[in-house]
Every structure is written in C-alpha cells, then in structure tokens.
Input
Amino acid sequence: MSCALAVLAPAVAPAEESTTLAFLRKVIQLDDGQLAAVEKGEVVTKQLHTTDKPEVAAFGVVKTSGTVDQLLAVARDVQRFRKCPQVPEMGLFSSPAKLADLEGLDYPPDDISALKKCKPGSCDVKLGTKGLEALSRIDWKAPDAGAQAAATLNQLIVESAARPSTRAPAAP
Output
C-alpha cells in the first residue's frame, strides 16, 4: 500500500505555487473543484491508479500555515497524532515489520463482515489474489471468525510492509 500526503504552506512564492498546482493538476489529476477546495484549506484525498492490482495508492493534500520545519516536527510526533480524533489508528513498523507492530489494531465489524462476501472480481475491500485466497481459508461460521480475519489481515499487512515499495511521484 502506498500513501502520500502533501501539505501546502500558504507562504509560498507565486512561481512555486504555480509549480505545486501544476503538479496537483497534472500528476495527481485533481480537478478544478478539488484544487479550489485545497485553496480553501479543505482536506482533499484521491485514490491513485496503480499498475499492481492488489496495491492501493492514496494521496491527500491540505493547505496549512507554518514553516516546513514546524510541519516536519508535527508529522514526526506519532504520539501526538495518536491523540487526534481524525486518526483512528496509527503506528510505526519495526524494521523489518512484524506482527507485534499491529498489536492493538482494531478492524470495524462492518469491514470484517464485508470480507465474508469477497470473491475474485467482487470485493468491497481492495485485496489481491493472495489476500482473497487467505480469506477463503477462514471458517466464517466459527465463533472466532472475526479474530481469524483480523489475524489474516495483519499477516497480509506485515508481508506487504516488508516488501520493497514503489514511491509515489515526488512533489516539486
């Protein structure tokens, strides 16, 4: 899974701003409405196209105030992010990633229920063939089916985190 977050500081020189907006328009392919929302300070997200079907690439952008150094300090403060109500789950992976890194991660019951219905070509959760095969081995009638599903997802996440990833396009 790939994820990118761009944060635009408002104190940007006009030439730099046009470069940033050009990146958002051409590379990320935000439309005029999305760019207007960014300019108003709204959070804009977009799922990006990937060439690898099981991969998810997400992009988010928000315009903020402050300096780049202030933003980096806040972004690196994981404990502070964990207290933010808009971030329900957050953590750091070890190097290499391990299952213990996901202790305390909760999956909403609706997400687990959606997994029961997943079939190749028809799944509300973006999973590749390997993920669908792993889910097919779950005994959905068992009392611990939810726990089996969570354990399966955790294993898939750790395996994904351990694989080398491709990076999203770099911002100007």
